[in-house]
Design brief:
single chain; 165 residues; alpha+beta; Thiol Ester Dehydrase, Chain A; 4 helices
Length: 165
């Protein structure tokens, strides 16, 4: 039951009845909400709570989300949502990886990569990061693990055979 990368920030959830869809498992949009909750909890722990963002008139908006759904969670399951900042250009963009595991058996249910861009909260336009955001660095052990990966991390992107013809 190891994590994909070292030193994860972990936010725990319990799947509740209102998150269950018609098939009897957690709806896919709930996983997105859980990642958002985890990212906010991590940012707050690192000294960047929503109040600071509003005061600075800056925020990190999701630009692209790549998700690979690997398994299902069910009502009552305890889920560990882990995140790691894996890239910050110090100007405009940050990338975060996520991994979700069911606590009871350690099965990975989701892997994701979310790309964020810094915006002006009033206009919604891209805007350079304030200094406070540039301090949101990638941990050295995470940077080393990402650099050592033999393939780029692209969740939800599956190679496809070319169609005949």
């Amino acid at each position: 039951m190891s994590w994909d990368l070292p030193s994860p920030f972990i936010h725990e959830r319990v799947a509740v009845h209102t998150e269950i869809d018609g098939y009897g498992h957690v709806n896919n949009v709930v996983y997105i909400a859980w990642m958002d909750d985890c990212a906010w909890a991590h940012s707050t722990e690192r000294g960047i709570p929503p109040e600071l963002c509003r005061r600075l008139n800056r925020g990190m908006a999701v630009w692209r989300t790549q998700v690979h759904y690997l398994g299902s969670a069910y009502e009552g399951d305890r889920i560990q949502v882990a995140t790691w900042p894996v890239w910050n250009d110090g100007k405009l963009r940050i990338e975060r990886r996520f991994q979700m595991r069911r606590q009871s058996d350690g099965q990975t249910l989701v892997r994701a990569l979310i790309h964020y861009v810094c915006i002006d909260l009033v206009t919604g336009k891209a805007k350079r990061m304030p200094e406070e955001f540039t301090k949101y660095t990638v941990a050295p052990e995470v940077a080393a693990a990402v650099a050592a990966e033999s393939e780029p991390f692209q969740p939800g992107v599956e190679p496809r055979a070319r169609a005949p013809g």
